Amino acid sequence: MLGLYLHVPFCSAICNYCNFNRGLFDASLKARYVEALLSEIGRAGGAGRAGADTIFFGGGTPSLLEPSEIALIIAACEDAFDVARDREVTLEANPESVTEDRLAAYRAAGVNRLSFGVQSFRDDELKRLSRLHSADRARAAYGEARRAGFNNVSLDLMMWLPGQRVGQWLESIDCALALAPEHLSLYMLEVYPNAPLKDEMARARWSQAPDDDAAAMYLTAMERLDAAGLAQYEISNVARPGRRSRHNLKYWTDGEWLGFGCGAHSTRDGARWKNVSATEEYIARIQAGESVALDMRRLPATERLGDALFTGLRLSDGVDLSAIGERYGVDVWQRYGADLARFIDAGCLLREGARLRLTRSGMLLANDVMSVFV
Ligand code: SF4
Q1: Which end of the chain has less Cβ packing within 10 Å, N or C?
Q2: How far is the CA of 15 from the centre of ligand 1 (A)?
Q3: CATH 1.10.10.920: which residues of the chain?
Q4: Structure pTM?
């Protein structure tokens, strides 16, 4: 089954650390973009409609689209694909952009999972990240989601923020636990070289905590979440039983997905491509009947194998070397074992029968381990 990703590149303000493909909200641009998105989805349909079981509105800030627009896009997906009845339909939402009525309307439109960009439950940290919402607004938005009938809610939190200490980070974890969401995503802030936050940090003399503290943030949070019934299933994600993100699992289990909208990526039938990134160019190409896909290329088998291992190792369950080896016709251990052995010796990796997985402390060094497959 395919996953369908819909990119919404609009935000009410641009956060000082953001490196995503997004721009400032403009109502008329948004209207033209939604038309283009509907056309692109329509083009992908046709005879022998492929099956899909997840739809994911990501961004940007998808909750800046009206519920009626979300309904139209879901309907376009249903026209173009055979969308399973038990589909997962996720909408990323920012706390300041929703009300209970708006959330209820999203639900009526077919959204059944919300992912809130909370980032922190401390107002000083939110301000430092130039986020538009407060901790109270995030809590209120969560309550509105519950009252609107959502029973599958995820919260995004960020750690290793400028000036943040371990205890302050754990405050956010405890606040999240008090709300009892079904899913949490925890990310370490990466300060990009050209991010405005980098200059602000220099001016204000904010620094990120030492690496050891960053490791303590990650490990302590994971332990606390585990104890509360939110089991880790991926490097950055925890969930209650049955509430793992079905859409994101496609990225980590060698699945297939189609991305629609500017800058969206797709992987299908051994090929990979990316849509043109600029919003205006994307719209213009669609209006002219041209392709929006760039860099379409067929992936060599070695690259597909490397990707399957690279992404699969992100999962707490790791990868089944026999199954992957069978799929790609190679003995995985013979090919990579010599390079992986040192990570096993260092306690970063575990080999249990046919399974290979990162230990939790190994997850902190995942990039080093995974460089073996690149
Ligand atoms: S809301 Fe998200 S996508 Fe938009 S600017 Fe902020 S971090 Fe970037």
Answers
A1: C
A2: 5
A3: 301-373
A4: 0.97
